[in-house]
Amino acid sequence: MNEYDVVVVGGGAAGLSAALVLTRARRRVAVVDAGEPRNAPAAHMHGYLGSDGLPPADLLRAGREEVAGYGGELVAGRVTAITTVGSTPPGRGHRRWFDLRLEDGSTLRARRVLVTTGLRDEVPDVPGVRERWGRDLLHCPYCHGWEVRDQPLGVLGGTAEAVAHAHLVREWTSDVVLFTHGSRLTADQREQLVARAIGVVDEPVTRLVVEDDRLTGVELGSGHVVPRAAVFVRPQLVPQDDLLVGLGCASRDDGWVVTDPTGLTSVPGVWAAGNAVNPRAQVITAAGEGSAAAIAINADLVEEDLPIAVANYRLGLPL
User: Fold this and answer.
1) To bridge 274 with a disulfide, which of 102, 134, 169, 286 should be the other Cys (CB 3.0-4.6 Å)?
2) pLDDT at residue 89, as a whole number
3) CA quadruple 304, 306, 309, 311: dihedral positive or negative?
4) Are 240 and 307 in a shared domain?
5) Which keywords annotate this record (predicted)?
6) In this structure, are 245 and 309 located in the same domain?
7) Burial of residue 75 (number of CB atoms within 10 Å: 0-12, 13-18, 19+)
8) Residues of 104-139 as b/e, b for ≥16 C-beta within 10 angstroms?
């Protein structure tokens, strides 16, 4: 069984950023990644200082090369379970260990675990939505608003969150239509939308119209097509936190796993970062959270080793 100081589960921005910090701290690190990044459909990444417009795959490729360059191990696979084990050799104090079972049946052992498995987006069940996801069916105006500025845009959904999204998208263009998809709006919501010159279409949406591999409009139940260049949605964000929940990590009332500012969960030795615990984390945010977690993990390992070093010293044993 291979043993590591830290195993990072998930090789996105958060996981690779943490692995980079830890390998530079001379820790033995493995990054296990299933190769399914959330932003894979997006052609470009925006809002990342120094890398604006970079394809997401290029950022991850560079990150993997950097981690490997400092001795980190990159493992292609999926972690299916994490269990806690303990080790207390005579005279050497106590170290905490975790076993990580992979889908292929192999096991990695680590003193600390960082989970950066992200989230999944549940989008409206409308033909064309999933197919255009990340291209001209968008979710984040901060990520994509500039690229579709001053164009006719739509927002799909009648929830309070979708209404708020329509007001947000209005900052990038004067031509916004909210498609409630048959949901009812309150009188106050309608007045606010009218006040900001945001159109409202109450009919159910039947599909997104695509011509020459480009979204051109939104088709309604009546057959009428409203021309749009891009459509935004507020997907339901579902954390991919099965591993954390399986370890017994505490969650908030909204279902998201609780962490402290460094990413430490309620389970000693287990950290989490990025979209697995923070639905609002963009790529640059996730990278920062991974870095902060790595620094905390390294400090925690040093603290655990101190009494062991003292015990060894007193017994005349090597470190």
Assistant:
1) 286
2) 52
3) negative
4) yes
5) Flavoprotein, Oxidoreductase
6) yes
7) buried
8) eeeebebbbbbbbbbbebebbebebbeebbbbbbbb
159 CB contacts (<8 Å, ≥6 apart)?
183, 234
On the question of pLDDT at 87 being above 70, the answer is: no
Task: Compute CA distances 219 → 111, 138, 181, 269, whole Å.
Answer: 54, 17, 11, 51
pLDDT average, residue stretch 8-17? 98
Which pLDDT band, with edges at 50, 70 and 90, does 177 fall under? very high
pTM of the predicted model, to two decimals?
Answer: 0.92
Residue-level pLDDT at 91: 44
Average pLDDT of the segment spanning 151-160: 95
Q: Check whether residue 227 and residue 258 sit in a common domain.
A: no
Same domain, yes or no: 150 and 180: yes
Please tell me the predicted confidence (pLDDT) of residue 93. 60
Return d(Cα 226, Cα 155) in angstroms, integer.
12
CA distances from 299 to 9, 176, 255, 272, 296 (A): 20, 50, 29, 16, 5
Q: Is 93 exposed, middle or buried (0-12, 13-18, 19+ CB in 10 A)?
A: middle
Q: How far apart are CA 212 and CA 20, in angstroms?
A: 42
Alpha helices per DSSP H over 4-79: 13-24, 56-69
